[in-house]
Design a protein that fits this description.
The chain is α+β, with helices and mostly antiparallel strands. The chain contains eight helices and seven strands; from the N terminus they run H-H-H-E-E-H-H-H-E-H-E-E-E-H-E. A hairpin with a 3-residue loop joins strand 5 and strand 6. Helix 2 packs across helix 3 and helix 4 crosses helix 5.
Amino acid sequence: MQTLSEENYLKVVYHLDKQGLKKITPTAISEALNNNPASVVDMIKKLGDKKMLQYDKTKGVKLTEKGKNIAISVVRKHRLWEAFLLEKLGYGWDEVHEIAEQLEHVQNPELADRLDKYLGFPQYDPHGDPIPKANGETALTYKTLLAEIPEGKNCRVVAVKDTSPSFLQYLKKLDIGIGTKISIIEKIPFDNSIVIIAGKNLKTTVSKIFAENLLVHE
């Protein structure tokens, strides 16, 4: 049975792969976990010995089939718990991530399936991330950023890249959530900020960083 720390490493490699990183290096893992590079190298070796990872200096770090199954299980539980906490216990979308980080490591083999069924088999978590099924299949992952939508176009919020409480609270303040329609009124070349109308017909100017952390669908 793998430890909590081992599961977190496998989960990070899974996320980096899903982000399209062509070569997952120990440095990338270290930055994602905010861990000491030396300890990351030690863990990669440990997980390699357990047949959960493969590491080659030219190809980078890759999950084995065993490691991938564990990572998918952890990610699945995390996102299901987020949905449960929001829908059934009334937590805000800025609160669920931290709690789910703890609950994702419960290793009862039936728990995720029962939770999935109880929630009605949701496809996405509260932040718009697809929830993996037991076989690893997921719904469509949205990749278009608000920053990429042309001036004069309309779009709908489908996910957030930044799930930090500060960003989610800011979105809540602007009355922006999953499903909110946004109209691009003006794009300002000077600093790449964008004038939008969103929420309760609120006209506001958002920064480039904001626009690069909101995923939308036209």
